[in-house]
Design brief:
InterPro entries: KH_dom-like_a/b, OsmC/Ohr_fam, OsmC/Ohrsf. By secondary structure, the chain is an alpha+beta fold. Helices cover 29% and strands 31% of the residues. It has a three-stranded antiparallel beta sheet, with no helix packed on it. Strands 4-5-6 form a three-stranded mixed beta sheet, with helices on one face.
Length: 138
Amino acid sequence: MSVNIQAVYTGNLGVRATHGPSGNQLTTDAPVDNGGQGTSFSPTDLVATALGSCVLTILGLVSQRHEIDLTGTKVSVTKEMVAQPVRRIGRLETIVTVPAGLVDDPAMRDRLEAAARKCPVHQSLHTDIDAPITFVYE
């Protein structure tokens, strides 16, 4: 399956991207520390966003198969940049918080955690990016 994304430079380090199948749009801006205004997601912020939303989507798919409602489960992804040897993402720390009582079975927790670590975005990250995923069951 392929999806086409069209993007246009709008000036002042801004970009408007359009999702081909839906026509939905988003904008990006360079971060302040890299000359932008920080008015929107930066391209590397979108990588962090993609990771977090991918993890939640995979958890949703697995939970549906096992008739578990994970509504209210949250993800927090903290992106850290590094400057050496080149400016790039150095770390994406992901914390998944599952509300109390939704998943009490240890075997199901193991299944969900393994699935999250196999999400396509996580699997697509370069091995130089430290990308731990931690689960918290409230």
